[in-house]
Model the fold of this input.
Amino acid sequence: MPLNEGPRRSGERRLSVNPFYGPANPLGDMAEAPPTHRLPDQPMAPVTAHQLVRDELMLDGNARLNLATFVTTWMEPEAGVLMAECRDKNMIDKDEYPRTAELERRCVAMLADLWHAPDPAAAVGCSTTGSSEACMLAGMALKRRWARRNADRYPGARPNLVMGVNVQVCWEKFCNFWEVEARLVPMEGERFHLDPQAAAELCDENTIGVVGILGSTFDGSYEPVAELCAALDAVQERTGLDIPVHVDGASGAMVAPFLDEDLVWDFRLPRVASINTSGHKYGLVYPGVGWALWRDAEALPEELVFRVNYLGGDMPTFALNFSRPGAQVVAQYYTFLRLGRDGYRAVQQAARDVATGMAGRIEALGDFRLLTRGDQLPVFAFTTAPDVTAYDVFDVSRRLRESGWLVPAYTFPANREDLSVLRVVCRNGFSADLAELLTQDLERLLPELRRQQRPFSRDKDAATSFHH
Done:
């Protein structure tokens, strides 16, 4: 949740009301222009309030043309109807809304089966507001398990968590909020994510776990989870340290099971203790819903689960949030029911085909070098070719925005701060036709960009890597 500040000036702008926005007597609503940063004194007609808000929202970018976000921007109308019917149901009131709670339970069971839990019936899981909350819960479980095993040394000893520098910002928040040392494996050369051996070398008796990312937000690549587990197996053989792995599958956990079935990354690996995913990314549901699963009850310490006598029922919960709508959970169950394995496979394959095809066409333009090709996550990153000096990726991003395309440009972290890239996320709803239009717009811009004397970008620190 971003922190917002109030108006910086004492003088406050007021909203302008068009006479046609009013009811039968349009002059009545023009008598008082509502303020923007304090409550108006009087109510206004609903049609007027609606139109004022809608006018401001027109200045937002078009979500369907936003190639920065991983978040779902299109669902079927039937899903929208279900969500509207459930938006007033409080997900936490499981005693009041038992069928919504049952659908949540079914989704957890489906994901446990999809991710090859040893006994799907014994797997433990819950819905969350997104992967950020799910990662926080997984991190809490890792820390509590470590603290329980090291009760003679904790809290004197400081726990640490090992992960690649490319992790989503929620892991940095977890380490900050829960006082865990973040041990980051830097990027090196053309390796843009975690190296298993380097991660293993950072582990010690205070390591609560290692995070593997199945689908890096920086470039769309999978981290080698199986190799990571093998490196930690070697650590255990050498030192006796049994270090669990959490797989942050915010995106890839809803792609790999359908398109990369032979890739071993999930609960088939005994060292994988927990997995999270975002239902609102490649789970194909509007925001916000995520999922956190543990391979069994032992992986989730019982003392973290609250049993609340709430509204007449005994309710076990594990969450940072409390009240939230049940609409997204219902929409997730609808989508699982609607698509099934074959449907998900078709949707994700279509997205990957768009990504790989578009990456190939951009490479063929000659001005760009691909870092990834969209053949893992349907995401690819590219930078300008070595001989391109007239413009940079920030110029490309800015010029594409003139046509409505939101394509992020950003600089990589340590040790590749020298590398600035563009990234394209291909989601359901970003069709091959839209990809062709974007490629045509990019090709149309190139002659003007090539005629520049130098790149125009100055404040590269203002760029963002769009970790969502």
Observations:
- The mean pLDDT is 91.
